[in-house]
UniProtKB/TrEMBL annotation:
This is NAD(P)H-binding protein. The lineage of its organism: Bacteria, Pseudomonadati, Pseudomonadota, Alphaproteobacteria, Hyphomicrobiales. InterPro entries: NAD(P)-bd_dom, NAD(P)-bd_dom_sf. Pfam families: NAD_binding_10. Signal peptide: none annotated. Residues 8-199 form the NAD(P)-binding domain.
Amino acid sequence: MARVLIIGASRGIGLEAVRQALDAGHKVRAFARSAGRIDLSHPALEKVNGDALASADVAAAAKGVDAIIQVLGVGAGQLFRPVRLFSDATRILVAAMAAVGVRRLIAVTGYGAGESRSSMSLLQRVPFQVLLGRAYDDKDVQERLIRASPLDWTIVRPGALTNGPRTGRYRVLVDPATWRYGVISRADVADFLVKQIEDRSLLRQAPVLA
């Protein structure tokens, strides 16, 4: 049993990770601006309202945990303006983890972040850059910040997300030669994240999930 902080816990992959971490027997601190409205009740669940861009909130939430899962997202309306959420929040988180002595970080970015963008075909890359370029430019910075840190990190790059069920049938693509754009449910991404809490075989790696 681990004590886990999940940042971005109120919806999507983050909320799925809360559910699955509890099912796996972990103690979960669910952190989000609307954490109090999470419709879950469990004796091992602590809901913490906070802002991922507020240093004091993040530092307080990080105290006393064994691992942190970071799942951040922006709304569609923010994609056509400069995006800094991913890098700014990660800067704050890395500093907070260093201050309180937490080393294990599992961070979700996405296929197309970092060097995985070079594995896209030209037909994929052009619409990707038009629609998601600003967000993924900032995710590139986010990944660089994590890689430069002394943390025990794993970066997770899922492909296109669906609301399908947890199946456990997905591929973890570590070798860049195998990277491809695929489809995966949020529940299956959460399955992978929760497994990484105790599985250290992918430390300092950035697999693509499909």
